[in-house]
Design brief:
Chain lengths: ~400, ~300
């Protein structure tokens, strides 16, 4: 009788161990089931900077819904869980924890801006969270961060392209550059990049002036620039400050050619400044809302279909683009979709076209760097929008 | 005019113009402090809410700006009365610190509510003023600033008369001085408080509408109120003319620092200068230029 009990116990143990092993071997990857994929999204939805996060996140969500309507990813429907971090790093860390541990998402489309992504770096690596942050700093791809894929030209590349454009396209006899920047990390990086590039062409930078976001007026900056006879102004300021600058310039009848980077290159600038934006030229690593490329047409259709009140069109396009890349990677990963296979699939993108949303995308197992390409846009004042005036271009190789 | 003199005059005029916006914001702070001895941290939110109300009256209801302006002032004033009735009145008699904390709570509440009702996007306010500046002998002034200067002056005059010559104005001053004494003399302190909040929010409406004309309109507009704080301290927390003079002075100092020092010392001096002034004033004349030193006899 006792022998019989021992044998029964041993058999039960073997059965339990076999079941455990089987469940481990055949378990779904995190966030992936037979007919569904869960993805996370951490972006600001409320608060003073919500205007940046809302269109971006809506673009991502709308593109995933579009993929679902097309039959999903290899038969699986995508669900996006959007957590609001209010643009605060601690809240972003908590949101990522929630998405990974409670919601068990496959990955997170974006962990937001620079500070949020840096704060999440440990979790990103530990839980293999493949993501495309909304940040343009070198630290995210140089040296290689295994799960971060940079999309969007760095500030350095954007301003190098701008100075190249001044030399090659404006062909001014006596260009005198004034720089208006924000005293933040991106402003300082940008200012240094402009000075370095201008020095290579022997173009004088005659003024360096600070203009913070939230400024009521830019009169003193305008007057200082006029005093220095700056005929080109390069702004390294976000959209609100750039708008304040252009409005103040119009007031003073000061009409230099004004350049701006991606965060200030949006249709909103023409809507807000009207005639004041007539000499504005911006660069961006996403196409313009007015472009007639297939990707941008799709973005416009998605916004219309989902009744989106798109404030900042460039960020909506960016959101569509990020989801586009994730969608493609998930398709390429096939049925065995997992955090690791998603990353590997993204690394297979070579000269990948997104229909004009982004420049051709290239990643590899050794480089997650962005293409460092931008397009130039000019204000179309009567139609209150920006229009493309160039194709994708990179900074020139200078000796 | 010689170019260096023109530069100085130009900077000064544009500084005074920006200062007039600060003055309008400062006026709201001062009114509430004058009557209740409370710094209202929700003043910035009142500014932002007012700007949104006006924006929607003009864009959604297609009202003319000049109709929307008084309507916004009225609606925002009512919001002030309502805020006092629902949020501040239950705190009557409580320590000042607790009441100040309640105003912080009110600011968060109003900001969140604004996000829900008005949205979190950036909006372009349909300005009724010409975008080109007004040129007088080489000096440029925007029409928006011209109107805000005019509004500051008119409001200063109106409040001066109100506090000096009307019964309600006297009641407000008395309430600020000694709530118990004026209550014993038959002044309805609660009514005074409600009116004060209503007036402060009404002024916030004027400030908000002018600010929305020169900036991008979003919920972040509330934070502009911080820029006016040095003006309040400079002028004196209890002085209506002080708020106006303080606002104009801060605008002037800020612009001159921007025009002369930003390039020499390094970027950002313009924005630091008002706070340097604030520190200096707090050290040498903590009750401000127009404030009254409190002397307690023991």
């Amino acid at each position: 009788m006792r022998r019989h009990r021992v044998w029964t116990g041993k058999l039960a143990l073997v059965v339990m161990l076999s079941l455990l092993t089987a469940s481990w071997v055949f378990a779904d990857a995190r966030g992936v089931t037979k007919d569904g994929i869960k993805l996370g999204l951490v972006l600001v939805k409320t608060g003073p900077v919500a205007a940046l996060g809302l269109p971006n996140g809506q673009g991502m969500v709308d593109y995933m819904s579009y993929l679902n309507e097309q039959g999903g990813i290899n038969g699986r429907k995508v669900e996006v869980i959007w957590e609001d971090d209010q643009f605060e790093a601690p809240k972003s860390v908590a949101a990522v924890k929630k998405l990974i541990h409670r919601d068990k998402v496959l990955s997170i489309l974006t962990t937001g801006g620079t500070q949020q992504t840096i704060a999440n770096l440990e979790q990103i690596n530990e839980f293999k969270i493949t993501n495309i942050p909304n940040a343009l700093v070198r630290e995210f791809f140089d040296p290689l961060q295994p799960y971060i894929f940079a999309m969007g030209a760095t500030y350095e590349a954007q301003y190098q392209c701008i100075v190249d454009y001044i030399v090659d396209e404006l062909k001014m006899k006596d260009p005198r550059i004034g720089v208006v920047y924000e005293k933040k990390e991106y402003g300082k990086i940008s200012l240094d990049a402009i000075k370095e590039r201008a020095a290579k062409y022997n173009i004088p930078v005659v003024a360096e002036l600070v203009l913070p976001t939230g400024s009521v007026d830019a009169s003193s900056q305008i007057m200082a620039l006029q005093k220095e006879n700056a005929n080109i102004v390069i702004t390294c300021t976000l959209l609100p400050a750039t708008i304040t600058f252009l409005k103040s310039g119009q007031k003073y009848n000061y009409w230099p050619t004004v350049f701006g980077f991606n965060w200030a290159t949006d249709d909103m600038i023409v809507k807000a400044c009207d005639e004041g934006a007539k000499n504005y030229i911006g660069v961006n690593f996403v196409g313009a809302w007015s472009d007639e490329t297939p990707g941008i047409k799709l973005a416009r259709d998605l916004a219309k279909k989902n009744n989106r009140e798109v404030g900042l069109t460039s960020l909506y396009i960016n959101g569509v683009g990020v989801s586009w890349l994730f969608g493609e990677a998930m398709k390429r990963a096939g049925k065995d979709l997992s955090p690791e296979s998603l990353k590997t699939a993204l690394e297979t993108l070579k000269n990948y076209e997104t229909g004009g949303v982004f420049p051709p995308v290239n990643y590899s197992s050794t480089s997650h760097a962005p293409g460092e390409m931008v397009k130039f846009f000019k204000a179309d004042v009567p139609n209150k929008r920006l229009v493309s005036i160039s194709d994708w271009r990179k900074p020139k190789e200078l000796k | 005019m010689e170019s260096s003199l023109l530069y100085f005059v130009g900077l000064s005029v544009s500084g005074l113009a920006v200062g007039s916006l600060y003055a309008l914001i400062a006026l709201g702070f001062v009114l509430i402090y004058k009557a209740t001895k409370i710094v209202n941290f929700a003043q910035g939110e009142a500014i932002m809410v007012a700007a949104f109300i006006c924006y929607y009256l003009v864009t959604l209801f297609q009202l003319s700006f000049w109709v929307a302006l008084p309507l916004t002032m009225l609606l925002t004033g009512l919001l002030g009365v309502l805020s006092e009735r629902l949020v501040l009145r239950p705190m009557l008699g409580e320590p000042v610190f607790s009441v100040v904390m309640v105003t912080i709570g009110l600011s968060i509440f109003l900001r969140s509510l604004a996000g829900i009702f008005f949205g979190h996007h950036n909006y372009v306010f349909p300005s009724p003023f010409p975008a080109e500046g007004l040129r007088v002998g080489g000096v440029v002034l925007s029409y928006t600033h011209l109107w805000s200067m005019l509004a500051s002056f008119v409001l200063m005059l109106a409040f001066f008369i109100f506090f000096k010559f009307t019964n309600m104005g006297l009641s407000m001053r008395g309430t600020a001085n000694d709530q118990d004494a004026v209550a014993l003399m038959g002044v309805n302190v609660r009514r005074v408080f409600a009116l004060t909040w209503g007036l402060a929010f009404l002024i916030a409406a004027v400030a908000g509408i002018f600010l929305a004309n020169v900036m991008v309109l979003n919920v972040g507009l509330a934070f502009v109120a911080i820029s006016a704080f040095p003006a309040v301290i400079l002028g004196g927390m209890e002085s209506v003319p002080g708020a106006i003079v303080g606002g104009l002075a801060i605008g002037l100092i800020e612009n001159l620092a921007g025009g002369y020092l930003d390039q020499v010392i390094g970027g950002g001096v313009k924005d630091v200068t008002p706070f340097v002034v604030l520190f200096v004033i707090l050290m040498i004349r903590p009750y401000g230029l127009f404030g009254q030193e409190e002397i307690e006899r023991v």
